[in-house]
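Write out a record, focusing on structure:
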Amino acid sequence: MAARVADARDLKIIGFADHAEFVNEDDAYIVDSYKGAEIYAEITRLRSEFSDRLEILFGVEVGFIPGYESRIADFLCSLPFDYAIGSVHYVDDVLVSRWTRQQEANKATFMQYYRDLLAAASSGLFHVLGHLDYVRKYMLAPDAYDHSEYEPVVDDILSACTSTGTAVEINTSGWRHATEEPYPGREVFTRFRKMGGKVTVGSDAHKTTEIAYANRRARKLLASVGYKEVEVFRQGKRSSITL
């Protein structure tokens, strides 16, 4: 169904990246239950069906946890992924949505989330860093988020991505949320472009109605801060597409 929707929306490339988590309490996405062979078989079938009009890429979104680098590396070598997204979904073994609201209620910092994200960016394990300032999604009062407080560590993350060749995703799902801007926002991409950083576009679609959500809007934002192309990964190798 998703491939048909992408085709109907005149997309030329789509990537499927299911979650793989290393936290035991996550029954839905725990890596031990990841059905990678089945997913790859279905993608292979769809590639044949849509070969003349839609390129379909096999990705995975890994929930990064510091200390799990070797296990993550082994997992990423176990299947022929075109690309791997590194994201932080748990902080101190607590799901990021619950952790964020706990921190917000206690007027505490979100710094540990960013430290974990910095470790992910520095690891060199991933082709793409996912939804960089995702904590904003889960705040009850996202307008209270203080960008200036986290700008130094965010810049460290961007610098690490530049050093490791990791692209940063403009995640358009933020335009579906109370934040009303992508993850991360314009100012982050303005700084990242000046560092020479590379970018990808992702809709974070968990249902077919969200496929390619705000794709044109994301490309327009990137162009407005000076980007001329976005990245795509095939069998782990980077290539660029003109905006």
Observations:
- The two ends are 27 Å apart (CA to CA).
- The chain has one domain: 2-242.
